Amino acid sequence: MDVRPSVTEGSLFEAQWENSKKDLESTARKTLGNELDNIRFYTQENEGGDMVYAMEYSCRREDQKWYVTVCYRFGENYIGEFIGVNPYSAMDCREVTMDAARSLRELGKSGKRDLPEGTDKDGWPFPYLHNPFAITAYYMDEEVPPEPSAQRKASDYEIKWKDRGMETIMRSLLGKEDGPVMSSDLDRCESLYIVGWLGDFYRIGMGNSTMEIPADGVNLRSLEDIKEFRNLTSLTVQVRTLTDLSPLASMEKLTYLNLLVSPKLSTLDWLQGMPQLEELMMWGESYPEIRDIKVFEGMDSLTSVMIILPSVKDISVFAGLPNLETLWINCHKNVDITPVKEAGQIKSLMVNTEEIR
Prior knowledge:
About 20% of the residues lie in helices and about 25% in strands. The chain has about 350 residues and is α/β, with parallel strands linked by helices. A 10-stranded mixed beta sheet has the order 8-7-6-9-10-11-12-13-14-15, covered by helices on one side. A 5-stranded antiparallel beta sheet has the order 1-5-4-3-2, sandwiched between helices. The radius of gyration is 25 Å and the shape is globular.
């Protein structure tokens, strides 16, 4: 919910509800296709006299069904959106979503709001509202991903895991306790999160979903299987037993990398295979065996580097990175900070715990 902008959808719903229903149904069928079971629209008058505009629909993929209720309210100074997605009960979804919509009280004075992310996707006709059908499709993709295309099936294959720990992690995230894990199963994995220093459990995640699994039996020893993740753009791996990061050299699409690995790590050469990397976070552990950081030359996409390299005496390479805005580095105590201090593009600079700007 948010304050009403100068151009609102309120009039479109209130004065042209019949047309709005047609636009909504058209977008639903365009976004969800044959997975849309049915859709209906209705209104309810609230205690204050204003209307709650509502629609309900259900979707099906394979044997899983989702029930969705969407409610809108337009007050003097606000837009209220309520989207409920429930895989078990249409009645529960309706009651919870409608109760939330009807309980909303007037917000403060009107003001400007930013457009939601992805406003123009899928022909959505209401720029100040979120597309509920795209949200539903997102949840279905998370729970039951769509079948790969015929072209993708032709190149598909069963993954032969190199590391049993990685296999355990991915089977947990994919919900596949047994049976083959296919290459196409990993196509939707754009973000992977593995934290293994928490004691009795690993915290793992893919996309926006996270879970905890017992550390017993996981024991991630190698990142060799990371080569199977062809669409990975964000990777967090915090496992202190890892010393070989060379498999990461194949991650050409990575834009974000967060690492906490063994202090015995001896090289950063694997960074050469990441031309699109924007953020590098290696702030949780010290890596004293690394002395050569020439690998950063030419990594012009970097906007943020946070790293602890106590043996490095020359950090001037960072001054030549045109898009680098944040540099936090702990390095040799006798380092010359003049080059990075004079680099105007570095807006946030901290060297050896001293915040310079």
